[in-house]
Amino acid sequence: MRGHVILSHGTGSGPQATKVSVLAETAEALGYSTERPDYRDCDELGEQASVAPRVERLLERIHAAPQPPILVGSSMGAFVSGLASLRAPCRALFLLALPIGIPGVEPQFDMARDVPSMLIHGFADDLCPADAALAFADRVGMPALLVADGHRLSDHVAVIEQQFRLFLERLSA
């Protein structure tokens, strides 16, 4: 086994969502084990109230992992992956449609700086402004790919899969 990948879905989505499913299949094809925590019960609490229980659930999964995992997250899943990376060891971060802040939630987004990372974001994202996500990526030196898409990145699933495959291959090299 090359490693373990934990994929976190966004709000209003689930562990069987298209992006996390495609990325899980990609990781598994490259010899990684994967898991996709289900946060839908947390999301029923509302956006603000879901953050803390999502982070705690992800931390439980990180601590149960056979080795420091690669964290993959989309939207709220990206937000909690970054926050969890500050509290538990991870091998890398692969983030999609990243919100830098969630109204009424402290802290703002942050992440471990000592691990490989990548951001993919849509410039037409109406929920998570691209400018804020790219400014964060620039500030921390995280590679970022800006695509012509909205928040769901649904027109670029193949591009995301290709970038994730390259990301994992670089980690294994």
Automatic annotation (TrEMBL):
<keyword id="KW-0378">Hydrolase</keyword>
<dbReference type="InterPro" id="IPR029058">
    <property type="entry name" value="AB_hydrolase_fold"/>
</dbReference>
<dbReference type="GO" id="GO:0016787">
    <property type="term" value="F:hydrolase activity"/>
</dbReference>
<protein>
    <submittedName>
        <fullName>Alpha/beta hydrolase</fullName>
    </submittedName>
</protein>
